[in-house]
């Protein structure tokens, strides 16, 4: 049944117990989840052949003649649709209930699906399903490599198999989804049929292109519905998957702005975002509703499935509003981006295989910042067809396709991705802020400028090296420093390296232009600065030793006196991260918390701080190499002994609330001048 279902003798994936029967050639099934085919054999002796035959064969047939064999789960029925793939590692409950997937057979590229089950179908105060994007599953079928019959998560209330069966949706597992994805990537989206062997209707099933029908009409509301923000204070984290607060919410008027949202397949989370986060009163209307004569403060055009050309009524209504009320703010998401473009006079086209996933990079054309976005669309706007007055707002960094449009003067803009989907998680929430500001300030016209400074040409840069390394120590500063030296050489900058350890990559012959095998101390570094007269200095490639040295040189005024520019992380940022109190204040400004702690310079101060925080505590020496003078203390006696050792290595010790037993995740993050960040690696 696969690695997440039954193996002979034991089953780690779903808790079954299978042992050898009285007859050596037979197996006794003791326990097993009932919705798995092996569940029919509980308490019986069976054979391997009977176990394998319990699976229901199924196949995925594509329009190009390709056939992929597997086994059925969910509802045992055959179906047809457009085969597309999603690259998300998690989020299948949200994806399967996304109306934008209507008419499609979804291939999930992550190898194991269903391992955390499906949450309860509870509703929030707005009457919306709190853990799903709509009231039903919209995909025609699901294709996975490996399927888990039982989920393991504290929110799980049912299995993926049972959930699909309840909603009448078929699935197939045991398919090489890598091969299917490569096929779609090379040939484009293909029509497909999911055929279940037990379904007698297989022979009559024909390929059907869902894009030839009006999918929006099938998923849109039939009647208009109004959602209002609740009275009083609201804990937005109850309804949102992000903890960041929107700056616009605090400045909302006493009477909520009224937004008219066109439902082309709107996701629940969009409504929650508008109502709970932005405190707006939202009236959601069907896709073909004539809103041209209605009164509202802003127009929102939602996401949805299929070809935007099918939404001709919506396009006509939007075009009429643009002509009659040119100062009315308009904001569109996903299909809304395409509808706004068509209303403006631009054109759209069907993409080869579309963009579907949670990690699509989009570049803001105004600032060149790159954002990680969640997407689900098979059509796109042709940027070259935009009429005068319009310009591309966002562009996809992978394929160069349009990801948003904006008008030069009017308060009209839209994006192709989902800013409410928390892919960043809240990197693009400013788009909602801009929409609300367009409403609150009718004469407001957003002008984005990029901070610019004349480039500085550096001729010679001093690099503080990694220092001594012993066997077993990590050499991250050594290899990162060597990469910095290579980058300086490629830029035509003379590199001067200070590193006391000859056995490092940094000190390899021919890498740096000049190497000083001297200790990285303030006095030696000052001497080299006065001798070499460098334009700049890099202090982040020598570990804690180089950081401490740089802080002391800054306090002495050596850098300013000799005209040396600190490149990379500023000294102020180094001090903020090293000083626990400053670091805690900086983290609080971001809306997060750190473990309770105190900075102490004596044993008595540490004892008093620990008494206030509560034992056990973690003691660390500030501004010191990792591990020096650090440890856990369960009582004042242990604390006094350890603090004396810590103060021998540093003038300050940090007493933290112990988080022993918690899991720590550490990320190495690289950030460029445009505030684009990538995580190089993570450690657990």
UniProtKB/TrEMBL annotation:
Gene3D superfamilies referenced in this protein's UniProt entry, alphabetically: 3.40.50.20, 3.40.50.880, ATP-grasp fold, B domain (3.30.470.20), Carbamoyl-phosphate synthase small subunit, N-terminal domain (3.50.30.20)
Which Gene Ontology molecular-function terms are recorded? aspartate carbamoyltransferase activity; ATP binding; carbamoyl-phosphate synthase (ammonia) activity; carbamoyl-phosphate synthase (glutamine-hydrolyzing) activity; dihydroorotase activity; metal ion binding
What the entry lists under InterPro entries is as follows:
ATP-grasp, CarbamoylP_synth_ssu, CarbamoylP_synth_ssu_N, CarbP_synth_ssu_N_sf, Class_I_gatase-like, CPAse_ATP-bd, CPSase_dom, CPSase_GATase1
| Keyword match Metal-binding | yes
The ATP-grasp domain sits at: 584-672
An example of a Gene Ontology cellular component annotation for this protein is:
cytosol
- State the UniProt keywords alphabetically: ATP-binding, Ligase, Metal-binding, Nucleotide-binding
Catalyzed reaction equations:
hydrogencarbonate + NH4(+) + 2 ATP = carbamoyl phosphate + 2 ADP + phosphate + 2 H(+)
**GO-annotated biological processes:** 'de novo' pyrimidine nucleobase biosynthetic process; citrulline biosynthetic process; glutamine metabolic process; UTP biosynthetic process
A Pfam family (short name) is CPSase_sm_chain
The cross-references to PANTHER family, in alphabetical order and at most eight, read:
CAD PROTEIN, CARBAMOYLTRANSFERASE FAMILY MEMBER
**Name of the protein described by the UniProt record:** ATP-grasp domain-containing protein
């Amino acid at each position: 049944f696969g690695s997440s279902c039954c193996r002979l003798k034991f089953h780690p994936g779903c808790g079954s117990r299978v042992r050898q029967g009285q007859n050596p050639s037979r197996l006794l099934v003791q326990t097993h989840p009932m919705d798995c085919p092996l569940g029919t054999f509980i308490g019986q002796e069976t054979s391997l052949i009977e176990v394998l035959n319990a699976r229901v064969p199924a196949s995925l047939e594509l329009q190009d003649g390709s056939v992929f064999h597997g086994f059925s789960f969910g509802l045992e029925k055959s179906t047809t649709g457009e085969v597309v793939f999603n690259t998300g590692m998690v989020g299948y409950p949200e994806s399967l209930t996304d109306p934008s997937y209507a008419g499609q057979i979804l291939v999930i590229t992550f190898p194991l699906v269903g391992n955390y089950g499906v949450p309860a179908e509870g509703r929030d105060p707005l009457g919306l399903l709190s853990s799903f994007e709509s009231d039903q599953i919209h995909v025609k079928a699901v294709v996975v490599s490996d399927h888990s019959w039982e989920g393991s998560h504290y929110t799980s209330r049912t299995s993926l198999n049972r959930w699909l069966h309840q909603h009448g949706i078929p699935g197939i597992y045991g398919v090489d989804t890598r091969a299917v994805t490569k096929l779609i990537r090379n040939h484009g989206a293909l029509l497909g049929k999911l055929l279940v062997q037990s379904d007698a209707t297989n022979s009559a099933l024909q390929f059907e292109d869902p894009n030839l029908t009006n999918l929006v009409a099938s998923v849109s509301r039939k009647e208009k519905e109004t959602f209002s923000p609740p009275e009083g204070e609201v804990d937005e984290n109850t309804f949102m998957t992000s903890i960041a607060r929107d700056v616009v919410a605090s400045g909302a008027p006493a009477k909520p702005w009224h937004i008219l949202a066109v439902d082309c397949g709107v996701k629940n989370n969009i409504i929650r975002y508008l109502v709970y986060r932005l405190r707006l009163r939202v009236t959601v209307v069907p896709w073909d509703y004539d809103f041209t004569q209605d009164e509202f403060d802003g127009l929102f055009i939602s996401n949805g499935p299929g070809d935007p050309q099918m939404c001709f009524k919506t396009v006509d209504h939007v075009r009429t509003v643009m002509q009659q009320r040119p100062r009315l703010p308009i904001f569109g998401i996903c299909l809304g981006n395409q509808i706004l473009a068509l209303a403006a006079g631009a054109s759209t086209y069907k993409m080869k295989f579309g963009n579907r996933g949670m990690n699509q990079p989009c570049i803001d054309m105004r600032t060149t910042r790159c954002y990680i976005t969640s997407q689900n669309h098979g059509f796109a706007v042709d940027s070259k067809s935009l009429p005068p007055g319009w310009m591309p707002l966002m562009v996809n960094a992978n394929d160069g396709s349009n990801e948003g449009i904006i008008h030069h003067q009017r308060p009209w803009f839209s994006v192709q991705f989902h800013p409410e989907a928390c892919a960043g998680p809240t990197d693009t929430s400013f788009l909602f802020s801009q929409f609300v500001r367009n409403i609150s300030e009718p004469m407001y016209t957003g002008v984005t400028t990029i901070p610019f400074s004349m480039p500085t040409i550096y001729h010679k840069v001093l690099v503080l090296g990694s220092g001594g390394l012993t066997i077993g120590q990590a050499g991250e500063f050594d290899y990162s420093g060597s990469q910095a030296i290579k980058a300086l050489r490629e830029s035509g900058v003379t590199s001067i390296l200070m590193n006391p350890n000859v056995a490092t990559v940094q000190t390899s012959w021919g890498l740096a232009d000049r190497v000083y095998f001297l200790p990285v101390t303030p006095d030696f570094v000052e001497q080299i600065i006065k001798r070499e007269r460098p334009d700049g200095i890099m202090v982040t490639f020598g570990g804690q030793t180089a950081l401490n040295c740089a802080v002391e040189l800054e306090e002495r005024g050596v850098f300013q006196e000799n005209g040396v520019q600190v490149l990379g992380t500023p000294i102020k940022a180094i001090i903020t991260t090293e000083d626990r109190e400053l670091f805690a204040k900086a983290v609080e400004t971001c809306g997060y918390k750190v473990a309770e702690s105190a900075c102490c310079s004596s044993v008595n101060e540490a004892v008093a701080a620990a008494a206030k925080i509560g034992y056990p505590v973690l003691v660390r020496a500030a501004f010191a190499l990792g591990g020096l003078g650090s440890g856990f203390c369960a009582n004042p006696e242990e604390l006094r002994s350890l603090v004396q050792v810590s103060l021998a290595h540093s003038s300050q010790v940090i007493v933290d609330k112990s988080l022993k037993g918690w899991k720590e995740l550490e990320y190495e993050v690289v950030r460029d001048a445009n505030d684009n960040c990538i995580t190089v690696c993570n450690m657990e």
